[in-house]
Amino acid sequence: MAFTASCSLDKEPYSALPDDGVLKDESKWPAATIGNYSLLKEENFTRNYFQMGEFPSDDVALSGATTDPLFYSYTYGHLTNQGNTGQLWRMAYKAVNGCNRLLEVMPEGKSPAVNQLIGENLFIRAFVHFGLVRSFGRPYSQSPETNLGVPVVTKYDITAMPKRNTVKEVYAQIVADLSRAKALMNKR
Prior knowledge:
The chain is built from seven helices and no strands. The protein is mostly helical.
């Protein structure tokens, strides 16, 4: 019988920093913002965002058979547990929560550099909400006051279970975020 001695393992992530280490250190806010941008480059977001938007259009013709769930987007036969929609949803709200986490600690007016970062995170949040409402809501021209869009998330709370906002409310938040971002960003 062999026994091995255990030692204390470092349990910190090897490819990330703990939230407190980033949120309290202003020098790490640019890297955290880049991390929020990088979530939009992840395959689970980019591939599904593109395919779910393009495949139902007249611009694409699917030839042959596929077992990829993108087929259901192509045929308008969406499933409630469709893999690619779940991937898009999760990655999108991961980016929104990353932006919200930073927006809560960055003080507006502290410096032009901080204002730029606030603007960039507001832009990312607006872009993601726009992509989600276009994928999961009705077009704005079809009763935006009553048709449901997606949940508007502007506060960091991973335990929240927000209800869907109307399409009009989602677009109002997108415009508000973009207007504020434009006023804060100073790099051209």
